Amino acid sequence: MINYKLLTPGPLTTSETVKKEMMVDHCTWDNDYKQITQKIRRELLDLAHVSPEDYTAVLMQGSGTFGVESAITSSVGKDGKLLILSNGAYGERMADIAEHAGLKYRIEKFPYYEVPDAAVVAKVLDEDPEITHVSMVHSETTSGILNDIASVAKVVKERNKVYIVDAMSSFAGVEIPVQDLGIDFIISSANKCIQGVPGFTFIICKKSELMKCKGKAVSLSLDLYDQWKGMDGDGKWRFTSPTHVVLAFAKAMEELKEEGGIPARAKRYADNNKLLIEEMGKLGYKTYIDAEHQGPIITTFFYPEDANYTFSEMYEFIKARGYAIYPGKVTEAETFRIGNIGEIYKEDIEKLISIYKEFLASK
Ligand SMILES: *Cc1c(COP(=O)(O)O)cnc(C)c1O
Q: Of 11, 298, 305, 338, which sees the most CB atoms within 10 A?
Protein backbone atom coordinates (compact mmCIF):
# COMPACT_ATOMS: atom_id res chain seq x y z
CA MET A 1 0.00 0.00 0.00
CA ILE A 2 1.35 3.44 -0.86
CA ASN A 3 1.85 5.59 2.17
CA TYR A 4 2.31 9.31 2.06
CA LYS A 5 1.21 12.27 4.13
CA LEU A 6 -1.27 14.71 2.70
CA LEU A 7 -0.26 18.34 2.35
CA THR A 8 -3.73 19.08 1.05
CA PRO A 9 -6.76 20.94 2.41
CA GLY A 10 -8.70 17.82 3.39
CA PRO A 11 -9.12 14.97 3.54
CA LEU A 12 -5.93 15.32 5.46
CA THR A 13 -3.47 13.17 7.34
CA THR A 14 -5.12 11.75 10.45
CA SER A 15 -3.51 10.05 13.43
CA GLU A 16 -3.20 6.26 13.69
CA THR A 17 -5.45 6.35 16.75
CA VAL A 18 -8.21 8.20 14.86
CA LYS A 19 -8.02 5.62 12.06
CA LYS A 20 -8.13 2.71 14.55
CA GLU A 21 -11.44 3.93 16.02
CA MET A 22 -13.08 2.82 12.78
CA MET A 23 -12.45 -0.86 13.46
CA VAL A 24 -15.86 -1.19 15.17
CA ASP A 25 -19.26 -1.67 13.54
CA HIS A 26 -21.59 0.34 15.74
CA CYS A 27 -25.34 -0.04 15.94
CA THR A 28 -27.11 3.24 15.11
CA TRP A 29 -30.04 3.07 17.54
CA ASP A 30 -27.86 1.92 20.41
CA ASN A 31 -27.85 4.40 23.27
CA ASP A 32 -24.01 4.52 23.55
CA TYR A 33 -23.81 5.54 19.93
CA LYS A 34 -26.47 8.24 20.27
CA GLN A 35 -24.59 9.61 23.28
CA ILE A 36 -21.46 9.94 21.16
CA THR A 37 -23.42 12.07 18.70
CA GLN A 38 -24.76 14.24 21.53
CA LYS A 39 -21.31 14.72 23.04
CA ILE A 40 -19.89 15.77 19.67
CA ARG A 41 -22.74 18.26 19.26
CA ARG A 42 -22.17 19.79 22.70
CA GLU A 43 -18.42 20.05 22.27
CA LEU A 44 -18.72 21.67 18.86
CA LEU A 45 -20.61 24.49 20.56
CA ASP A 46 -17.67 24.98 22.93
CA LEU A 47 -15.24 25.14 20.03
CA ALA A 48 -17.44 27.79 18.41
CA HIS A 49 -17.66 29.86 21.62
CA VAL A 50 -21.46 29.84 21.62
CA SER A 51 -23.95 29.13 24.39
CA PRO A 52 -26.18 26.04 24.20
CA GLU A 53 -29.18 28.25 25.01
CA ASP A 54 -28.76 30.22 21.81
CA TYR A 55 -27.04 27.80 19.43
CA THR A 56 -27.21 24.16 18.39
CA ALA A 57 -24.97 21.92 16.29
CA VAL A 58 -26.53 19.77 13.57
CA LEU A 59 -24.54 16.96 11.96
CA MET A 60 -25.35 16.08 8.35
CA GLN A 61 -24.25 13.18 6.18
CA GLY A 62 -22.07 14.02 3.20
CA SER A 63 -19.07 16.15 2.34
CA GLY A 64 -18.67 19.82 3.26
CA THR A 65 -20.62 21.06 0.26
CA PHE A 66 -23.68 19.18 1.55
CA GLY A 67 -23.49 21.29 4.72
CA VAL A 68 -23.24 24.58 2.82
CA GLU A 69 -26.08 23.47 0.55
CA SER A 70 -28.15 22.44 3.56
CA ALA A 71 -27.71 25.78 5.33
CA ILE A 72 -28.42 27.87 2.22
CA THR A 73 -31.31 25.87 0.83
CA SER A 74 -32.99 25.46 4.22
CA SER A 75 -32.82 29.09 5.28
CA VAL A 76 -33.23 31.47 2.34
CA GLY A 77 -36.68 30.30 1.25
CA LYS A 78 -38.92 31.52 -1.57
CA ASP A 79 -39.29 35.02 -0.15
CA GLY A 80 -35.64 35.60 0.69
CA LYS A 81 -32.69 36.77 -1.37
CA LEU A 82 -29.10 35.74 -0.76
CA LEU A 83 -26.08 37.98 -1.25
CA ILE A 84 -22.96 35.87 -1.88
CA LEU A 85 -19.53 37.44 -1.38
CA SER A 86 -17.07 35.51 -3.47
CA ASN A 87 -13.31 35.53 -3.99
CA GLY A 88 -12.76 31.93 -4.98
CA ALA A 89 -14.23 28.63 -6.14
CA TYR A 90 -16.07 27.97 -2.88
CA GLY A 91 -17.85 31.31 -3.06
CA GLU A 92 -18.78 30.52 -6.66
CA ARG A 93 -20.07 27.14 -5.52
CA MET A 94 -22.57 28.92 -3.25
CA ALA A 95 -24.00 30.62 -6.33
CA ASP A 96 -24.20 27.22 -8.03
CA ILE A 97 -26.13 25.92 -5.01
CA ALA A 98 -28.56 28.87 -5.11
CA GLU A 99 -28.97 28.44 -8.86
CA HIS A 100 -29.81 24.72 -8.56
CA ALA A 101 -32.31 25.40 -5.79
CA GLY A 102 -33.95 28.22 -7.75
CA LEU A 103 -33.28 30.75 -4.99
CA LYS A 104 -33.05 34.48 -5.56
CA TYR A 105 -29.44 35.57 -5.17
CA ARG A 106 -26.84 38.11 -6.12
CA ILE A 107 -23.13 37.34 -6.27
CA GLU A 108 -20.58 40.06 -5.55
CA LYS A 109 -17.22 38.97 -6.93
CA PHE A 110 -13.82 40.12 -5.69
CA PRO A 111 -10.44 39.18 -7.14
CA TYR A 112 -9.09 35.93 -5.68
CA TYR A 113 -6.21 37.82 -4.02
CA GLU A 114 -8.47 40.38 -2.27
CA VAL A 115 -10.74 39.97 0.76
CA PRO A 116 -14.40 40.98 0.36
CA ASP A 117 -14.62 44.59 1.48
CA ALA A 118 -17.18 45.36 4.20
CA ALA A 119 -17.75 48.86 2.75
CA VAL A 120 -18.83 47.32 -0.56
CA VAL A 121 -21.10 44.92 1.30
CA ALA A 122 -22.71 47.82 3.18
CA LYS A 123 -23.31 49.65 -0.09
CA VAL A 124 -24.87 46.61 -1.78
CA LEU A 125 -27.13 45.93 1.21
CA ASP A 126 -28.29 49.57 1.30
CA GLU A 127 -28.99 49.55 -2.43
CA ASP A 128 -30.84 46.25 -2.48
CA PRO A 129 -33.34 45.96 0.39
CA GLU A 130 -34.63 42.63 -0.97
CA ILE A 131 -31.53 40.91 0.40
CA THR A 132 -32.29 38.90 3.54
CA HIS A 133 -29.20 36.64 3.83
CA VAL A 134 -25.46 37.14 3.30
CA SER A 135 -22.99 34.30 2.83
CA MET A 136 -19.23 34.10 2.48
CA VAL A 137 -16.23 31.82 2.94
CA HIS A 138 -13.79 32.33 5.81
CA SER A 139 -10.66 30.50 4.63
CA GLU A 140 -10.92 30.45 0.81
CA THR A 141 -9.11 27.22 0.16
CA THR A 142 -8.89 28.09 -3.54
CA SER A 143 -6.08 30.54 -2.79
CA GLY A 144 -5.40 30.23 0.95
CA ILE A 145 -6.60 33.77 1.70
CA LEU A 146 -8.20 34.32 5.12
CA ASN A 147 -11.25 36.54 4.67
CA ASP A 148 -12.24 39.14 7.22
CA ILE A 149 -15.54 37.72 8.47
CA ALA A 150 -15.60 40.13 11.44
CA SER A 151 -15.79 43.38 9.47
CA VAL A 152 -18.49 41.91 7.23
CA ALA A 153 -20.37 40.58 10.28
CA LYS A 154 -20.61 44.12 11.58
CA VAL A 155 -22.35 45.56 8.50
CA VAL A 156 -24.54 42.47 8.05
CA LYS A 157 -25.71 42.48 11.66
CA GLU A 158 -26.25 46.26 11.74
CA ARG A 159 -28.75 45.66 8.96
CA ASN A 160 -30.33 42.61 10.61
CA LYS A 161 -29.51 40.17 7.83
CA VAL A 162 -28.93 36.45 8.33
CA TYR A 163 -25.21 35.65 8.14
CA ILE A 164 -23.96 32.30 6.77
CA VAL A 165 -20.24 31.47 6.91
CA ASP A 166 -18.45 28.57 5.22
CA ALA A 167 -15.64 27.98 7.71
CA MET A 168 -14.89 24.57 6.26
CA SER A 169 -11.12 24.78 6.22
CA SER A 170 -10.69 27.15 9.18
CA PHE A 171 -13.03 25.94 11.94
CA ALA A 172 -10.89 24.65 14.84
CA GLY A 173 -7.72 25.72 13.02
CA VAL A 174 -8.39 29.39 13.67
CA GLU A 175 -10.40 30.75 16.62
CA ILE A 176 -13.84 32.03 15.57
CA PRO A 177 -15.99 33.79 18.20
CA VAL A 178 -19.22 32.75 16.46
CA GLN A 179 -21.67 34.21 18.96
CA ASP A 180 -19.81 37.51 19.39
CA LEU A 181 -19.77 37.95 15.62
CA GLY A 182 -23.48 37.14 15.42
CA ILE A 183 -23.00 34.41 12.82
CA ASP A 184 -26.31 32.57 12.27
CA PHE A 185 -25.05 29.49 10.44
CA ILE A 186 -21.43 28.34 10.30
CA ILE A 187 -20.39 25.22 8.46
CA SER A 188 -17.42 22.88 8.60
CA SER A 189 -16.78 19.17 8.06
CA ALA A 190 -15.31 16.12 9.75
CA ASN A 191 -12.20 15.96 7.59
CA LYS A 192 -10.71 19.41 8.03
CA CYS A 193 -9.11 21.04 11.08
CA ILE A 194 -10.68 18.73 13.65
CA GLN A 195 -8.68 16.06 11.83
CA GLY A 196 -11.28 13.35 11.38
CA VAL A 197 -12.02 11.37 8.23
CA PRO A 198 -14.51 12.41 5.52
CA GLY A 199 -18.19 11.46 5.78
CA PHE A 200 -20.19 14.18 7.47
CA THR A 201 -20.49 17.92 7.80
CA PHE A 202 -21.76 20.03 10.69
CA ILE A 203 -23.67 23.27 10.89
CA ILE A 204 -23.66 25.39 14.03
CA CYS A 205 -26.93 27.28 13.98
CA LYS A 206 -28.43 30.14 15.91
CA LYS A 207 -31.60 28.52 17.23
CA SER A 208 -33.84 31.53 16.59
CA GLU A 209 -32.87 31.44 12.88
CA LEU A 210 -33.00 27.65 12.64
CA MET A 211 -36.55 27.78 13.96
CA LYS A 212 -37.50 29.97 10.98
CA CYS A 213 -36.27 27.25 8.58
CA LYS A 214 -39.25 25.01 9.29
CA GLY A 215 -40.85 23.97 6.01
CA LYS A 216 -38.49 26.10 3.88
CA ALA A 217 -36.03 23.47 2.65
CA VAL A 218 -36.06 22.59 -1.04
CA SER A 219 -34.46 19.17 -0.41
CA LEU A 220 -35.57 16.29 1.78
CA SER A 221 -32.19 14.89 2.82
CA LEU A 222 -30.58 18.31 3.31
CA ASP A 223 -33.45 19.77 5.34
CA LEU A 224 -31.54 21.37 8.21
CA TYR A 225 -34.58 21.93 10.38
CA ASP A 226 -35.80 18.35 10.06
CA GLN A 227 -32.31 16.98 10.64
CA TRP A 228 -32.14 19.03 13.84
CA LYS A 229 -35.59 17.91 15.01
CA GLY A 230 -34.63 14.31 14.37
CA MET A 231 -31.30 14.55 16.15
CA ASP A 232 -32.05 16.93 18.99
CA GLY A 233 -34.17 14.65 21.14
CA ASP A 234 -31.85 11.70 21.64
CA GLY A 235 -28.97 11.92 19.17
CA LYS A 236 -30.48 9.62 16.52
CA TRP A 237 -29.64 10.68 12.98
CA ARG A 238 -32.63 10.93 10.62
CA PHE A 239 -31.14 8.61 7.98
CA THR A 240 -28.23 6.15 8.17
CA SER A 241 -25.26 7.86 9.74
CA PRO A 242 -21.61 7.26 8.85
CA THR A 243 -20.97 5.32 12.07
CA HIS A 244 -17.25 4.67 11.56
CA VAL A 245 -16.67 8.31 10.70
CA VAL A 246 -18.57 9.46 13.79
CA LEU A 247 -16.41 7.26 16.04
CA ALA A 248 -13.24 8.55 14.40
CA PHE A 249 -14.48 12.13 14.80
CA ALA A 250 -15.18 11.65 18.52
CA LYS A 251 -11.59 10.47 18.92
CA ALA A 252 -10.31 13.40 16.86
CA MET A 253 -12.19 15.80 19.17
CA GLU A 254 -10.43 14.18 22.17
CA GLU A 255 -7.07 14.54 20.48
CA LEU A 256 -7.78 18.20 19.77
CA LYS A 257 -8.37 18.69 23.49
CA GLU A 258 -5.18 16.78 24.37
CA GLU A 259 -3.18 18.98 22.03
CA GLY A 260 -4.36 22.03 24.00
CA GLY A 261 -7.53 22.93 22.11
CA ILE A 262 -7.82 25.42 19.27
CA PRO A 263 -5.14 27.82 20.62
CA ALA A 264 -2.46 25.09 20.48
CA ARG A 265 -3.63 23.71 17.15
CA ALA A 266 -3.88 27.17 15.61
CA LYS A 267 -0.33 27.88 16.75
CA ARG A 268 1.02 24.65 15.25
CA TYR A 269 -0.68 25.41 11.95
CA ALA A 270 0.45 29.03 11.90
CA ASP A 271 4.04 28.18 12.85
CA ASN A 272 4.27 25.48 10.19
CA ASN A 273 2.71 27.76 7.60
CA LYS A 274 5.21 30.50 8.42
CA LEU A 275 8.15 28.11 8.24
CA LEU A 276 6.89 26.72 4.92
CA ILE A 277 6.55 30.17 3.36
CA GLU A 278 9.96 31.33 4.62
CA GLU A 279 11.79 28.25 3.42
CA MET A 280 9.98 28.08 0.09
CA GLY A 281 10.81 31.77 -0.33
CA LYS A 282 14.51 30.98 0.01
CA LEU A 283 14.13 28.48 -2.82
CA GLY A 284 12.57 31.16 -5.02
CA TYR A 285 8.86 30.32 -4.61
CA LYS A 286 6.65 33.36 -4.05
CA THR A 287 3.16 33.31 -2.56
CA TYR A 288 0.08 34.35 -4.51
CA ILE A 289 -1.54 35.97 -1.44
CA ASP A 290 0.28 38.82 0.32
CA ALA A 291 1.53 38.30 3.88
CA GLU A 292 -1.25 40.41 5.40
CA HIS A 293 -4.06 38.19 4.08
CA GLN A 294 -2.34 34.82 3.80
CA GLY A 295 -4.17 32.31 6.01
CA PRO A 296 -2.47 29.57 8.07
CA ILE A 297 -4.21 26.65 6.31
CA ILE A 298 -2.96 26.35 2.76
CA THR A 299 -0.58 28.38 0.60
CA THR A 300 -0.66 29.05 -3.13
CA PHE A 301 2.80 29.38 -4.67
CA PHE A 302 3.61 30.72 -8.14
CA TYR A 303 5.60 28.58 -10.48
CA PRO A 304 8.93 30.29 -10.97
CA GLU A 305 8.91 31.87 -14.42
CA ASP A 306 12.04 29.97 -15.44
CA ALA A 307 10.83 26.58 -14.15
CA ASN A 308 12.08 23.73 -16.34
CA TYR A 309 9.67 21.18 -14.85
CA THR A 310 5.95 20.47 -14.83
CA PHE A 311 3.63 20.19 -11.84
CA SER A 312 3.30 16.47 -12.36
CA GLU A 313 7.12 15.94 -12.35
CA MET A 314 7.33 17.88 -9.11
CA TYR A 315 4.31 16.05 -7.67
CA GLU A 316 5.66 12.58 -8.50
CA PHE A 317 9.12 13.38 -7.12
CA ILE A 318 7.63 14.56 -3.82
CA LYS A 319 5.08 11.76 -3.61
CA ALA A 320 7.80 9.11 -4.04
CA ARG A 321 9.44 10.66 -0.97
CA GLY A 322 6.33 10.59 1.22
CA TYR A 323 4.16 13.68 0.65
CA ALA A 324 1.25 14.64 -1.59
CA ILE A 325 0.92 18.30 -2.60
CA TYR A 326 -1.95 19.96 -4.48
CA PRO A 327 -2.43 21.58 -7.88
CA GLY A 328 -3.26 25.28 -8.12
CA LYS A 329 -6.83 26.49 -8.52
CA VAL A 330 -6.54 30.20 -9.23
CA THR A 331 -7.40 30.94 -12.81
CA GLU A 332 -5.05 33.70 -13.92
CA ALA A 333 -1.64 32.29 -12.98
CA GLU A 334 0.42 29.08 -12.97
CA THR A 335 0.44 27.98 -9.34
CA PHE A 336 0.46 25.02 -6.98
CA ARG A 337 -0.69 24.64 -3.38
CA ILE A 338 0.71 23.19 -0.19
CA GLY A 339 -1.57 22.62 2.77
CA ASN A 340 -0.29 22.32 6.31
CA ILE A 341 -3.34 21.16 8.28
CA GLY A 342 -3.75 17.64 9.72
CA GLU A 343 -1.12 15.55 11.50
CA ILE A 344 1.70 17.64 10.09
CA TYR A 345 4.54 18.83 12.25
CA LYS A 346 7.65 20.99 11.95
CA GLU A 347 9.68 17.89 10.95
CA ASP A 348 7.35 17.35 8.00
CA ILE A 349 7.86 20.87 6.71
CA GLU A 350 11.63 20.49 7.12
CA LYS A 351 11.50 17.17 5.31
CA LEU A 352 9.45 18.68 2.49
CA ILE A 353 11.95 21.52 2.09
CA SER A 354 14.82 19.06 1.86
CA ILE A 355 12.87 17.13 -0.82
CA TYR A 356 12.42 20.40 -2.74
CA LYS A 357 16.16 21.08 -2.52
CA GLU A 358 16.87 17.61 -3.85
CA PHE A 359 14.32 18.10 -6.64
CA LEU A 360 15.72 21.48 -7.70
CA ALA A 361 19.30 20.12 -7.64
CA SER A 362 18.21 17.32 -9.99
CA LYS A 363 16.92 19.83 -12.59
C1 LIG B 1 -13.24 21.63 1.65
C2 LIG B 1 -14.08 22.83 1.47
C3 LIG B 1 -15.46 22.74 1.16
C4 LIG B 1 -16.18 21.45 0.99
O5 LIG B 1 -15.74 20.70 -0.03
P6 LIG B 1 -16.21 19.18 -0.16
O7 LIG B 1 -15.41 18.69 -1.32
O8 LIG B 1 -17.66 19.17 -0.40
O9 LIG B 1 -15.87 18.54 1.15
C10 LIG B 1 -16.21 23.91 1.11
N11 LIG B 1 -15.64 25.09 1.32
C12 LIG B 1 -14.32 25.23 1.59
C13 LIG B 1 -13.77 26.60 1.82
C14 LIG B 1 -13.50 24.10 1.68
O15 LIG B 1 -12.20 24.23 1.96
A: 298
